[in-house]
Structures are given as C-alpha cells and as structure tokens.
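Researcher: Quick test of sequence recovery. Tokens follow.
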C-alpha cells in the first residue's frame, strides 16, 4: 500500500486528530517564542513619537488618558523650525510675561500700600518660587509652552501642613489629561447680596498624569481639589482622609491658548494656519535642495552621432570646470550614440550647444509665497510687522501707534487673563484673598514729552524737588543729586518775620538798576515801609524758586505774594537780579530769546505797576 493510498484510506477522525496535533504544535511554538521574548533584554523607554499611545482610551493599556488633538512634540518642533513662528512666539513672551508685575490691595481706600507687610511677603515669595528661578522666568516658560502647543501647566507644591511653598512649570509635551471622574459634592464660599454664603455644588474633578520611563504613571490633581490623590495609583481617597505626604499627588493649574472643539486640551492660536506653516518650511527646503544640487546648468553641450574624445573632455573640464570640489553649476556634456548606419554610410556627428540662461533663477523661488505665509501667521497672532523685525518703513510715530494697538488688543488682555488666574486661585489659596497680581505694561517713553510734563508740574509750585530730580534723571538718563546746602543768590539773603512774611535784611543793597518806566501815582505820598521785624529764621533764596513765585503771583494776581517777592527782588544786587531774569526765561513764561535787559525792564515795570495798584487799593 502506497502512502497516497494510506492517506486516502484514513478515517475522518484520524485526520481531525492529526490536524489538532498540528495546531497544538503551533500553540507550543508560540508559547516557546513568548518565553524566549521574556528571557530577552527589553528596554523600558518608549519611542518619542507618542509614548502614551497604548494608554489612551480604547487602546490595549487603557488607563483613561485623553489623547490630544495634535501631536504635541510635532507642534513644538514646527514652532522651532518655522521662520515666522519663533519670532511671533518670542514677541508674545517678551511683551506679555517679561515686563514684570506688582501686587496691590483690592481695597482702594487701604493705607499706603508701599508699607504693606503682606505685599512684602508676596513679593518675597514670588522672587524665588522655585530654588534658583524667579517667577518671571517661570511665566516665560509657561507662555512659550502655551504658544507652541496650546497648553501650559503650573505645578503647585504644598508641605505637610498644606501650605503652598513652591511653584514650577511642567513641560507641556510630557503632560496628559485623564478623563473626568464621577461628580462629587464640593463646598464653595461665594458672596451673594453682600453676605458670604457656603453652597454645595456637584463637580467632576480632573486628574493629570505623566509617563515615567515608558512604564508607570505619576498622577496629579486639579488645583484646589480638597481630596487627596494617590500619585502612584491615581485613586482618590474619601473626603476627610489623608494620605502620607510623600504619596500625595501635587496640584496642577492648566492654561490653554484656544479651546479645542472636541477635547479639553488647548490648541495653539496658529493651528488654523497649519498649511502655511508646513508650506513655508517645504518652500525653504526646496530652495535649499535647489542650491545644493547646483541649480540649472548654464550650458548643455549635445553631441549626437559620436563620442567625445578623452583629450577633448579634459580640455573642456579644464576650461569650464573647477575641480571635483566645485562640480555644481557647470557646463554639462550629453553624448548620444547613433542607433543606425553601416560601414558604407556612417552617421555624421553633430554638436549642439543649448543655453539655459533664461531658465536660471536670479533669486530663490517661492519668495512671494513665503511672504504670504508670514503674513498669515502674523495675522493669527494679531501682531504688527515691527514685532517680528520688519521695521524698515517705520517711524517713531508709526511704531508707537503699532505698539499701542498691539498693547490694547493682544498683550494687555493676555496679561489680565493670567493675572486673574493667579489672583483668584493661587493668591486666595495662599491666604491673600484681598490682594491681586497686576502685570506691568511695556511703555514707550518720549523724553521730550516727559520733560515738558515736568516743567508744567514744576510751574504749579506744588511738587517736591526730590521727585522732580528723580523724574528728570529717569527721563534724561542723568544722575543729578540735590545739594544739602542751598546756593546763596548774589550775596543777598532774606528772613521770615513772625507773621511768615518774607522781608529783606536791613543790610541789603539798594536796587541800582530800577526799570526805566514811570510808576503810576508818582508824586503821591508813598506807603510807609514796614519796620524791620525780628528775625526768627532765614536762608538764602535760589533764583529758580524766586522766579517761579514771582511769575505765579503775576498770573494769579496775588498782590500780597507779589509784594513779598518784589521786596526780595529789589534786595538783590545786579548779579542776583540777572540770575532771576535768566531763571524766568528758562521757565518759558516769556520768550527765552528775549534780551535780558528788556526782560528785566518788562518784569520790573509789571511788578512796579501791580505793587502800586495794590498799595492804592489798600
């Protein structure tokens, strides 16, 4: 009996048994393969494209992790590679979070906030919320993550007594959101009709997670949640129970740029311009490849019906080539062998030279397309061109207008939104509910306008000289200091009597340079001069102060003050009066180009007339 006959004569049961054994052998082989795999060395780190791939909802290791709408590492890399995204993002970082901040009391009627001890405590904490790192640095890192990936995370750390002691930013690419849990009742204290009331609200609280070494997860909880969360298992404990401090999950404040339509993640504000981001990069890579390949050859020599001799080839390379290191953008030779002919009639060789000068590019291609992409990306940030370095057509006026528009529409709203989160969540949890953070704007200052404002303030004679000197130093970049000893004026001094009136000393010289004008009421009996009063205190008067007092008295028609200033002016010698006239001209009450003698005459006549009117009215 042959083997074929034996196979055909086997009963069906025996054939089924052999098939079962064959299948069992395959199973045993698979088991052996798995055993070998377990015995092999295996790496713990996952590939960087998405280490959470198997942990998302519906995957093999489903742990409730929500998948972001875009690959976060891909978004971050695009922001680094694109020639427009990086300047736009850094402009947002600098103008929103790099300007500094202050703290202030919400109560506008509070006492001087400069001496507020609680503001000093907040300032001390935020100067170094994480060892070796300031809050401005943390804010910049948060803003950079926010603009690149659409998400930013601030970790809040408490000690064993639940006191907030540290803050730090978390890399947005490494953080994932976990699906919401079942709702639980949470008590909130709110203010209604002027009274604080406690209300219970059903809230679904959020968890966050990070993957460690591609294997285990570390869990975090949403900021402000009262229940403890086990950071290793991700399980909540019952309300009122406490975990040991090393096992508690820390808290996360989640910032988003723009909300995603289908997930609780945020998306970057430039996500709608993704084609421009990718296209701009492709255009630049195409241009780079064009240059690397040498572009279009300037001349193409076609040799038809023959081959080029070796000597001729070397001669061409010597004349038109520059060696092996420079083989691009050079003359190319194309040889075409004949396909027909015989011994009696051989085809004639023909040489043709084709020039490609018209097809050669004078500049990089797709430049207009790249400019359009840049405009579209800036539009998504709503930034004027000057913020990305395009300042060729800008003057000071247009630059100031562009900044004011960006400050009002982009920078200030972003600062206010960030300050609101820090003030309402973080400061309240730290025990400072009556205080708020206020970010500083980046102000463009015009030194000329500022100095003019200082002159107007000085003319009111109601400002402190120390404040004036400080503002002048800030505006002009000077280092002027106030002298402790007042400079005497022309050798003349004055005193103050018991009634507070300023009178000249009896030894003051008479005025030798009286203004050449006839005083009204000449020939009439002059009012009796006041007798010398007892000197209580006295100090020299500076020219600027006397000039300001005199001109203010003239403008306000204050005859009493004018009389006192007149007495001081007349008590000066010629040098002192000249300094007063110069100080008056410097205040721009009169034209500074006016001749000093004429100015003195005009001022002297005006003072004399008004003093006489005052005396007559008395």
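Model:
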């Amino acid at each position: 009996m042959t083997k074929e006959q034996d196979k055909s004569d086997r009963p069906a049961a025996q054939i089924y048994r052999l098939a079962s054994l064959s299948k069992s052998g395959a199973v045993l082989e698979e088991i052996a393969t798995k055993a070998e795999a377990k015995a092999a060395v295996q790496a713990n780190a996952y590939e960087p494209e998405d280490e959470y791939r198997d942990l998302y909802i519906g995957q093999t290791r489903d742990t409730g992790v929500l998948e972001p709408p875009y690959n976060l590492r891909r978004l971050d890399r695009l922001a680094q590679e694109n020639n427009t995204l990086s300047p736009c993002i850094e402009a947002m970082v600098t103008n929103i979070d790099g300007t500094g901040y202050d703290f202030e009391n919400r109560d506008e009627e509070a006492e001087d906030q400069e001496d507020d001890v609680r503001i000093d405590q907040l300032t001390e904490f935020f100067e170094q919320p994480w060892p070796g790192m300031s809050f401005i640095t943390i804010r910049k890192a948060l803003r950079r993550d926010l603009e690149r990936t659409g998400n930013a995370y601030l970790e809040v750390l408490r000690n064993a007594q639940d006191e907030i002691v540290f803050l730090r930013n978390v890399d947005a690419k490494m953080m994932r959101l976990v699906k919401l849990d079942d709702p639980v009742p949470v008590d909130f204290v709110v203010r209604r009709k002027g009274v604080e009331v406690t209300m219970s609200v059903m809230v679904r609280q959020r968890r966050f997670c990070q993957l460690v070494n591609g294997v285990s997860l570390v869990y975090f909880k949403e900021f402000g949640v009262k229940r403890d969360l086990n950071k290793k298992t991700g399980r909540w404990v019952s309300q009122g129970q406490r975990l040991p401090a090393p096992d508690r999950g820390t808290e996360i404040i989640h910032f988003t740029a723009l909300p995603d339509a289908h997930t609780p993640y945020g998306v970057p504000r430039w996500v709608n311009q993704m084609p421009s981001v990718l296209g701009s990069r492709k255009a630049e890579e195409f241009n780079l490849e064009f240059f690397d390949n040498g572009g279009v050859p300037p001349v193409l020599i076609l040799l038809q019906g023959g081959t080029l001799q070796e000597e001729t080839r070397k001669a061409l390379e010597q004349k038109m080539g520059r060696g092996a290191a420079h083989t691009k953008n050079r003359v190319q030779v194309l040889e075409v062998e004949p396909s027909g002919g015989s011994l009696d009639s051989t085809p004639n060789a023909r040489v043709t030279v084709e020039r490609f000068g018209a097809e050669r590019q004078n500049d990089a291609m797709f430049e207009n397309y790249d400019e359009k992409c840049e405009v579209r990306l800036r539009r998504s940030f709503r930034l004027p061109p000057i913020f990305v370095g395009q300042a060729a057509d800008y003057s000071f006026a247009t630059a100031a207008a562009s900044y004011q528009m960006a400050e009002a529409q982009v920078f200030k709203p972003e600062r206010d939104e960030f300050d609101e989160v820090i003030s309402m969540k973080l400061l309240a949890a730290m025990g400072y509910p009556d205080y708020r953070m206020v970010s500083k704007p980046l102000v463009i200052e015009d030194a000329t306008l500022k100095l003019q404002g200082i002159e107007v303030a000085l003319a009111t004679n109601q400002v402190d000289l120390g404040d004036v000197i400080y503002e002048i130093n800030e505006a002009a970049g000077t280092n002027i200091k106030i002298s402790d000893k007042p400079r005497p004026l022309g050798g003349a001094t004055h005193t103050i009597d018991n009634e507070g009136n300023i009178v000249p000393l009896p030894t003051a010289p008479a005025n030798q340079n009286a203004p050449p004008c006839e005083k009204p009421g000449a020939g009439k009996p002059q009012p009796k001069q006041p007798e010398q009063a007892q000197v209580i205190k006295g100090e020299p008067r500076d020219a600027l102060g006397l000039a300001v007092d005199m001109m203010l008295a003239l403008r306000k028609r204050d005859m009493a003050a004018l009389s006192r200033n007149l007495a001081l002016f007349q008590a000066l010698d010629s040098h002192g009066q000249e300094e007063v006239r110069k100080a008056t001209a410097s205040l721009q009450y009169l034209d500074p180009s006016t001749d000093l003698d004429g100015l003195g005459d005009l001022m002297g006549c005006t003072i004399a007339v008004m003093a006489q009117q005052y005396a007559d009215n008395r």
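Residues 396-429 form the longest helix (34 residues).
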